[in-house]
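tool_call: predict_structure(chain=1)
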Amino acid sequence: MLKHVEGQDWRALALPSAAAEHPIPTPATSASSSEPSVHTPKVVIIGGGFAGIAAARALKGNEVDVVLIDRTNHHLFQPLLYQVATATLAPSDIAVPIRWILRKHENVRVLMGEVTGIDIEARRVTLDHGTRTETYDYLVVAAGARHAYFGHDEWEATAPGLKSLDDALEIRHRFLQAFEQAERCEDPAEREALQTIVIIGGGPTGVELAGLMATIARDVMHDDFRCIDTRQTRVILVEGGSRILPAFPENLSAEALHDVAELGVDIRLNSIVTRIDDGAVYVGDERIPTRSVFWAAGNAASPLGRMLGAPLDRVGRVEVEPDLSIPGHPDVFVTGDLAAFTRPDGRLVPGVAPAANQMGGFAAKNILRSVRHQARLPFRYFNKGDLATIGRHRAVADFGTIDFTGVPAWLLWLFVHIMYLVGFRNRVTVLIQWAWAYFAYQRGSRLITGGAFRGQRGAGEKERSVKAA
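tool_result:
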């Protein structure tokens, strides 16, 4: 799926046309339309993802002061996160400092910190458990999503998901470390477990991880070891439904199933994981010995949504008004993965980057309309299509009335991501660097660095980590 798309012209992407024939009344403000206010409205944006960045860029140079808050100092191009996890790309290939993106936005400040409280009555945001507060006139909450383990949060330590650079590096560490341990292992059963990878979830992330891990084990690493044959690695993809890529049309799901299986991936449909421990995954009654388990089975909205006191859907997304504000608080907007916005056909806007871009920029547009005492407009989502890659040179593409597969779809995927990724830096430089890394499987990305990964930490270290958090 084209889960995240970013353009060189962020404002053009972020501010799609809206249905101006149905304006939404502007909420009352303290300033009279006949008497200019000396107060410059302050907009606080929570989150430096696609929606948050789009909102900040759309407010550039306008009559507002903007504060963007994020727990990290970088914006992440998430469509390629799985390639960092599989040691195909380096972290710096898909991340860029937020301050660099907004360096020419003189009315925008960036704060690195974690939002731990939102008081919508006092119009105040609390950072890092009270070490700092920020008041606002308008609030844009673009906090994104997190992993959902469906009541089994204890599985997270053994089966990490993929949402951040830290997650990607964790998965990469485990993926590479398993081969290193297998190389020195003399027990055939243990070696087989080390060369068994289980990926839970048959959506785009799971399919992309499974396809690329199988390809790397088979085609890239087989000459790197002397005691093991990486081509014997088992990659098992577990999906609870009847088909992979369930959001795609059935014909594309079937094509993807064929392509993934051709890469040597063992696909288990209609299969439910019942237990995960340090040595095995249980699929139904079957025990699969493995040392590498990765989670791609579900998402839940950021817990910040619960601080707003607005209605939530079953996965914690905030149910928003047509203008993207929350009921009863027209000064608070929710965008991106955290927003539950129902389209005219009854379907929700998907949690993908094109939608986040559009929602973030559109919220900014309505804020400016309010500041200027103009009627707000209702949001309309424009579906830009879905793409999912399979291995190195295959993909499926769905554009509603048009879909295609194979190498042409992969070339489209490559073009789209190169074009949107290079919005960060010089087009030619990034194209050369990224293409070389991708096609040559840069060795530097397969380095194992840092200490023991999370699954090998001792209880004492885990306890210290919890206390530090």
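agent: Residues 1-21, 28-33, 451-469 have pLDDT under 50 and may be disordered. Proceeding to next step.
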